[in-house]
Write a structure and sequence with these properties.
- This protein is of the alpha/beta class.
- The protein has two domains: 24-184, Rossmann fold (3-Layer(aba) Sandwich); 188-277, no CATH class.
- It is built from eleven helices and seven strands.
- The protein has helices at residues 13-17, 19-22, 24-40, 57-68, 80-90, 108-117, 169-178, 188-202, 216-228, 238-261, 268-274, and strands at residues 46-51, 73-75, 96-98, 125-130, 140-145, 150-154, 182-184.
- The strands form two sheets. A five-stranded parallel beta sheet has the order 2-3-6-1-7, with helices on both faces. The protein has a two-stranded antiparallel sheet with strand order 4-5.
- Helix 6 (108-117) runs parallel beside helix 7 (169-178).
- The longest helix has 24 residues, at 238-261.
- It is globular, with a radius of gyration of 23 Å.
Amino acid sequence: MTKQYELKPRRTAEDWDAVEDENPLAKQMRTVQRRAEQVIRGYPPVCYLSGGAGLGKSFAILQAIRSTGATVIRAMPKNVRELEHFFERSNGTTPLIFEECDHLFNSTNSLNLLKIATDSAGPRSIEVYVAPKKRSESGSFKTIPLTAPTIIACNGDLSNDCVWPTACVPHIEALRSREQPLYIQGDHTARWEYATYLALRRRMLTKTETGIDVPLQVQNEAIQWFADTMWRQSEVSPRRLMKIVNVMMADHLEKKRVQRSGSVHDHRALGEDLEQFLLPQAGDLPLPPVVPAIFVSPKMPSSISRHAA
């Protein structure tokens, strides 16, 4: 049985910086970003990323794209035909980033195409029949190169054959023999600390999904609530923390609106909206971690205003 990651007191900005080297999930994400950068630059030719939803795979890929400055094609192909379409668009050179691709590993047709794309000893291209536009005309064939650098991310565990259809397992084994998938995992505490670290040290909560600036107070309240309810969270991830900020920001804007109109704000609304993120209370839970207040001022986004106990 894997031992649960033990949280350390994080009292200063320097303590939170140490998460990058001490947190097991942070280490894995560093590997993911490094591998993604290598693939985008052309070697190795492919990378498979697997692991639970919301752990930060997409964030690490985005960091790799920014780091390399490359133009890429990001997509979520649903079947082999869409795979062919995006490989054709790439023209064999533009890096492809395929995300949320669990269904591809449930399809022998899609897996066969991926095997061709990653077989260095094979043609790494396919001939696709093109139907004629008119009945009087003959069909033709076109060649689609499969040589584009490719990153494929899914939520299922590519190292566990039990989670995939029996017919697909030999194909997945063939893919693994060519490039070992990276499986990202982390227990509840490691996930919470990593998500909070990103919020504290990389300013991931400064804007809503629609680009609205988030006041410092709302950022603090979101992180505090995220800590207080950690053991009841259905998902502990950077994405979930951002969703909490969006809900709190909506309530914040509503407060300002009713104040201008002279109405009365419903103080129950925020708590009821946040309940969507929580699992039912089940017995005694461990005490939540203590987090410092952050973002003392916009000029000092990395400062921490009070020490954790």
